[in-house]
């Protein structure tokens, strides 16, 4: 692992020369927008048990409790705005030859910032799904008019997110793996790197000789596997990194 330090010219050059760039994000990228993360001192899992709220069993047992929690999160996110890190990733997408953003976040803040090539690998809080019919609806209502919300077929709708023990959508996994198998640079931003299968995604590119870079406030289980780690807030680190990449590309043109 390379140590934290100022953003080196060598790092900027590798990112600028990438032919296929992937950014993987987690809850940390939205922290500076005021959206709580899951783990850590002020994380959601300090206050709530994942087993009570983010599993199919929890929803089956108490859909009202699960929906109260999701409704509160929707309200928090609706009041939030994308931050400098989300915007830097939009700029990176514009600069890159080929680009994919794989986000574990369900908050929609990347789209609000302007990201276009994006896989929401854990789903979205802004879509509801009928467990009986499989239909998926966009729903931006804040607050929800009905808790729990119902489908016209009578079933209780669920958030269209991926809970623990559930499989990730096959088409999302396919798109992610297709990009990872040809990527020469993966940037991992604001994730604790403990939730599978996403935690193992950077290793796919690394095994093929790609550059793997982590941006995080803390050291994570992924840090020792990285070529380079930038420690600090994504909102402070990403804008200068992307600006340097823009300059490096400009100077070669
Ligand atoms: C900053 C910052 C700033 C803060 N700037 N940085 C193989 C081995 C072991 C277990 C498994 C395995 N395969 C599957 C499992 C089981 C399970 C799993 O991984 N469990 C582990 C916890 C042990 N995985 C699953 O069940 C997945 N399904 C699956 O694999 O299906 C097949 C299968 C099933 C069962 C067995 C085997 C195979 C599904 C996972 C679904 C995760 N769902 C959630 C909820 C989504 C909906 C919702 O939001 O309500 O997804 S849980 C939660 O964790 C959420 C997140 O997307 C995910 C990851 O969290 P993330 O984003 O990393 O956030 P944090 O809070 O953990 O970290 C924030 C980071 O930011 C920290 O590092 C901070 O330092 C940093 N930070 N501020 C930069 N300003």
How would you portray this structure in words?
The protein is an alpha/beta fold and 253 residues long. The protein has helices at residues 9-16, 28-31, 44-47, 50-53, 56-61, 63-78, 84-95, 109-113, 170-180, 201-207, 234-252; strands spanning 21-25, 99-103, 118-120, 123-129, 136-138, 158-161, 185-189, 211-216, 228-231. The strands form 2 sheets. It has a 6-stranded parallel β-sheet, with helices on both faces. Strands 5-4-6 form a 3-stranded antiparallel β-sheet, with helices on one face. Helix 10 (201-207) links the parallel strand 7 (185-189) and strand 8. Bound molecules: ligand BJW. Ligand BJW binds next to helix 2. Residues 26-28, 31-32, 37-40, 43, 54, 104, 106, 122, 161-167, 190-192, 194-197, 216-218, 220, 233-234 line the site of ligand BJW.
Q: State the total count of DSSP E strands.
A: 9
Q: Determine the mean pLDDT.
A: 95
* Poorly predicted tracts of residues: none
List of distinct ligands in this structure: ligand BJW
Largest sheet: 6 strands, parallel
Strand content: 15-25%
Basic shape: elongated
DSSP summary: helix tally: 11
Strands of the widest sheet, in order across it, are 3-2-1-7-8-9
Share of residues in helices: 25-40%
Q: What would you report as the Rg, rounded to the nearest angstrom?
A: 19 Å
**Global structural class:** alpha/beta
What is the H/E string?
HEHHHHHHEHEEEEHEHEEH
What is the rounded distance between the termini?
A: 31 Å
